[in-house]
Write a structure and sequence with these properties.
single chain, alpha/beta, 9-stranded parallel sheet, 13 helices, globular, FMN binding, Oye-like, NADH:flavin oxidoreductase/NADH oxidase N-terminal domain-containing protein, OxRdtase_FMN_N, oxidoreductase
């Protein structure tokens, strides 16, 4: 296997990546609940992975109402911004690059995480099943008014400004996995009849408006988005994802954003008993569709290995890969791949979303294992 292509530098908008082994956004929930400020432990965690082509942070909420998981670091208070500055400064001191993944959970949140605030979404349709982080049923969201949609757009802009103040190299809009942007995009969750619902143009409107706000703060060369066109997480499906995402990607191409991260879902039919078709039944090959439409950087995401990353890059399907679990259990993933060292695939799922250093800071570097 010729791994040199993973170490071929890549120009991603305004930023030069030294390699194509990028770190995916990974929810870890290590903050104190009282303030959701990044801690020294979080500073150390990201610093250990600074050799990545670039790092995407765990999703950072833009407001109290946008929370979905306890202990996720925010970006809407002064204290949170100061906490992220320490994270960013540490990554930069090690020669790394770090982008914030910015989000709002929408109907995927819980009022118990929001001090009793009402859950918002595009339409009053609740997610079937239980919340991903506990045995609690989802709530029926309040259908957002136009004024409330505009309020959220302003919060996204303020979050981008806060990210810039913290020193981030750029931002990624979380438009995947059934959170608020995805909820407006797909017609299983968006039944609106106003300017934000109905046609693919209307359902794409919120996403594109937020992207415009991000561009106005960072410039298009430091802005990206994550999408999951055929994923079923959080009860999501679109009746015609090919039409929807062809339109969306064409519009993003016009805006010349730096990158699109594509979640390459392969969910089976009727996953979670939702009654939806399989991912590949809807769009068999996402990159075959999107590569001709987008001249920026395409990032592949979802259970890729160095070998499958090399194969896809060599074939021109995408430009780089965001690795998730491999970066959890291999903080020195780039060094291991470069030198052909064994990869640790024994990640501890039970500690993904817990507190403390176990499963967070206790995975040894390859050099430490040899002593």
């Amino acid at each position: 296997m010729d791994q040199s292509i993973l170490f071929k530098p890549l120009k991603m908008g305004d930023v030069e990546l030294p390699n194509r082994i990028c770190m995916a956004a990974l929810t870890r929930q290590r903050c104190e609940l009282k303030d959701l400020v990044p801690t020294d432990m979080i500073v150390q965690y990201y610093g250990l992975r600074a050799e990545a082509g670039f790092i995407l942070t765990e999703c950072v909420p833009i407001s109290q109402r946008s929370l979905a998981f306890p202990g996720e670091p925010g970006i809407y208070t002064k204290e949170q911004v100061e906490g992220w500055k320490k994270v960013v400064d540490n990554v930069h001191s090690k020669g790394g690059r770090i982008y914030a993944q910015v989000w709002h959970a929408g109907r995927a949140s819980l009022s118990t995480l929001q001090d009793g605030l009402e859950i918002w979404g595009p339409s009053p349709i609740k997610i079937r099943g239980i919340h991903r982080r506990g045995l609690i049923e989802h709530e029926v969201p309040h259908e957002m008014t136009i004024d409330e949609i505009h309020e959220v757009i302003k919060q996204f802009r303020q979050a981008a400004e806060n990210c810039k103040e913290a020193g981030f190299d750029g931002v990624e809009l979380h438009g995947a996995h059934g959170y608020i942007i995805d909820q407006f995009l797909r017609d299983s969750s968006n039944k609106r009849t106003d300017e934000y619902g109905g046609s693919v143009e209307n359902r794409s409107k919120l996403c594109l408006q937020v992207i415009d706000e991000f561009i106005s703060v960072f410039g298009n060369g430091r802005v990206g988005i994550k999408i999951s066109p055929v994923g079923r997480l959080n009860d999501q499906c679109d009746s015609d994802p090919l039409k929807l995402y062809t339109h969306l990607v064409k519009e993003l191409e016009k805006k010349k954003i730096a990158f699109i991260e594509v979640k390459d879902d392969n969910d089976p039919a009727n996953l979670f008993d939702f009654g939806y078709p399989s991912s590949k039944e809807q769009i068999p090959d996402l990159f075959e569709v999107f590569r001709p439409l987008f001249s920026g950087i395409l990032l592949a995401n979802n259970q890729y290995t160095p070998a499958t990353a090399i194969e896809g890059i060599e074939k021109g399907r995408f430009d780089a890969v965001t690795f998730g679990r491999l970066f959890i259990s291999n903080p020195d993933l780039v060094e291991r791949v470069r030198n052909g060292y064994e990869l640790n695939t024994n990640w501890d799922v039970d500690t993904f979303y817990t507190k403390g250093i176990k499963g967070y800071l206790d995975y040894p570097l390859y050099s430490q294992k040899q002593k």
